[in-house]
Hints:
Elements: H1 2-10, H2 14-42, H3 47-56, H4 60-71, H5 76-86, H6 89-96, H7 105-112, H8 117-124, H9 129-158, H10 162-168, H11 173-182, H12 189-205, H13 213-218, H14 222-232
Helix pairs in contact: 2-4, 2-8, 2-9, 3-9, 4-5, 8-9
Amino acid sequence: MRHTEQDVSKEPTPRRRARAQALSIALAVTPFGVAFGAAATDAGLETWQTAGFSLFVFAGSAQFAAVEILGDGGSVAAAVTAGLLLNLRSVAFGVALVDAMPASRWKRALAAQLMIDETAAVATVQPDRDTSRYAYWFTGLALFAMWNVSTLVGATVVASSADLIHDLGLDATVPAAFLALLWPRLDQPTHRVVAVAGAAIAVLTTPFVPPGLPVILALVTVVPSVLRRETTS
Length: 233
């Protein structure tokens, strides 16, 4: 019995487990933050602009998309539109995490700044509402800190050396990040059809339209699946 009690006391509490999950994810996104800082500087943004981008936007995939469009000579309007469309998924996150959000409106507005894929993932797997709320804030703040620090490192240290970017393989991080976001969503035939159709539209329209617009045009492939879901529901 004594041995059993000691084993139980050593088991991680829900909050301790949530912290471990959050910190592991925060460390995992660090190379992406460095890559973003380097990519943003390479696209023509000043260091303070790059740092401000991560500080006030804090949405990795949207930031990468915007920088890619600007780097290819696309307009600011195209970059902003692509970022907004990518972040529409946050609406679904808000519905799923309603129990984890604070009661007051201003606190919810503050919490919304931290609503990204990783915070939603960690918060939604917790066993109860209190732990879910704790996990949301801890994960969000840990990621926010690591993302901004790594962005600054990428913009100031790494961006000054093109050879270092290639040597570390950071030039491949941007497409790898998009592939990592896309791959788990290809678990259903409909999703695979949408992905292939979107890629085809982007490739076929690239020679004929301004940079950034192919990405936006590819998003029209999502419309039929959304309408179909609304009809069947």
